[in-house]
Amino acid sequence: MNSTLLNNVLRFVGLLILQIFLLDQINFLGYINPMVYILFIILYPVDNNRWSFMFIAFALGILLDTFQNTGGAHAAACLTLAFVRPVFLKLVYGESYLMKNLKIIRTPIDRLLLLSVLSVITHHLIFFSLVIFNTSQILYTLKLTLSVGIATILIASLFLIIFKPKVKS
Fold it and tell me: Are residues 39 and 10 in contact, defined by beta-carbon separation less than 8 angstroms?
């Protein structure tokens, strides 16, 4: 088993366990639960097969739906994020992404943070729209998207700073 595959498997299992057993138990201010598991989708290698990536993102979402009883909202949000991820990568990284020589975890923290913000907003907007599924609650949906998104970005940034490999100059 090569190191990339092993890293991806460990990241998948580790983030899933962290989300289910620790972060889902947090209810900051009664409604804020950070969703750090989407770091798996953000950090997934660029050069891998797109269809397998979509399947893995769906599997991640469906596993969370099983544990959280959210009826497919995580799966839909993860699949949407996996689908639009190439657009975000092209927007944030430009030519590096097009040449497929990009290692997302090794990029500068500002670009990684921009990619995280775009991904978190997209994921959370889809997720909370499906969970609430009521147009009269649009302000509440946006409030949840913003507040949970900020918490997710803060905790995800903390993880990225801690686990980001040091670049040799």
Answer: no
**Packing angle of the helix pair 50-68, 73-93 (nearest 10 deg):** 140
pLDDT interval class at 79 (50, 70, 90): very high
Tokens of 81: 């994020």
Question: How far is Cα 135 from Cα 126, in angstroms, rounded to an integer?
Answer: 13
Q: Look up residue 34 and give its two tokens.
A: 């950070």
Phi, psi of 162 (to 5 degrees): -70, -45
**Mind listing the pLDDT tens digit for each residue in 2-35?**
777 788 888 888 888 888 888 778 777 777 788 8
The model's pTM: 0.88
Torsion angle in degrees (nearest 10) through CA of 4, 169, 158, 117: -80
Question: Where do the domains of the chain lie, and which CATH numbers do they carry?
Answer: 3-163 (1.10.1760)
